[in-house]
Amino acid sequence: MKRLVILLPVFLLFVGCGSLEKVTYLNDVTGDEVYTLPSDYEITIQPADFLTIVVSAQNATESELTLSLNGPTMDLGMRGATIRSEIYNYNYPYGYDSDRRGYLVDKNGDINFPLLGRIHVQGMTRDSLITYLENRIRTEGYLSTPIVTAKTINLKIAVLGEVKLPGQFPISTERITVLDALGLAGDMTIYGNRSNVKVIRENNGVRTISELNLNSKDIFNSPYFYLRQNDVVYVEPNKRKAEQGSVSPLWSLGVSTGGLLVSLATLILVTVGGY
Fold first, then answer.
1. pLDDT in tens, 232-254
2. Closest CA to 170 of 188, 187, 152
3. How far is CA 181 from CA 22, 39, 49, 162, 216, in A?
4. Which of 242, 241, 235 is nearest to 167 (CA)?
């Protein structure tokens, strides 16, 4: 009996070490390692994106001409405010503290731009849209030295499942990783399956689901490591949580109580019997 009592902590330590590997990230990183980030990673414009585009002129004498090239000014106000203009009435859930000129990308991937008309922007990056607009404004004779700034302002992702703060999160940067997303959601719970995190993505009407193993450094090579707007990250429960969910609460309570009673009986035998 005494031998059993001595070996019990060793067994628990061994089990704990095995479990630790399942709840930590990047277990196979052995030291200082260098990874080259993808240089071509850029978010592309998709339907339902809300763009702010402002046209200005480098030549001061043309500044008044920019008024006709800028869309309606929209007050984005506080969180939950409604954007009002002559063209759009779009419920925008994120707060900004200045007036913006906004364009909602329609289901066909188009925007209606002043003077230039309908433009198909779906699939463009922010930089390629800026280059396209500056070239057209210049070549069509509206401004000789146009300066265009553009930004997608309703970028968001969702994180669901076994995380501390599941929900939808607005993002202010075009470069966000799945690890960043988990950070926004307060990280995984102890029951999160780190070896099978799903990223759900819709692009051009096609939905794809990719599985990422966050225990492995191979995630850095996945095209889903960097997220895109409207991606959904789902953390599924691990085997332990799934097994707990498959039995009734009463059964779980009975098992826990039984284990506690066995432990107490063992402690009494060791103390009183001198084993």
1. 999 999 876 655 655 455 545 55
2. 152
3. 20, 21, 20, 13, 17
4. 235
- pLDDT band, residue 112 (cuts 50/70/90): very high
Question: Residue 58, Cα to own-chain centre: how many angstroms?
Answer: 37
* Inter-CA distances, 20 with 16, 31, 49, Å: 6, 19, 41
Strands 73-75 vs 99-104: parallel, antiparallel or unpaired: antiparallel
**Which tokens hold the place of 186?**
């307060």
| Nearest partner of 49 among 110, 131, 136, 96, judged by Cα | 110
Q: Give the torsion sign (CA, 20, 26, 27, 32).
A: negative
**Superfamily of domain covering 2-38+155-237:** Outer membrane lipoprotein wza domain like (3.10.560.10)
List the Cα angle 142/148/152 in 5-degree steps. Answer: 135
For 50-152, CATH number out of 2.70.50.60, 3.30.2310.20, 3.30.1950.10, 3.40.50.2300 equals: 3.30.1950.10
Cα torsion 165, 180, 101, 115 to 10°: value is -130
- Alpha-carbon gap, residue 157 to 94, rounded angstroms: 13
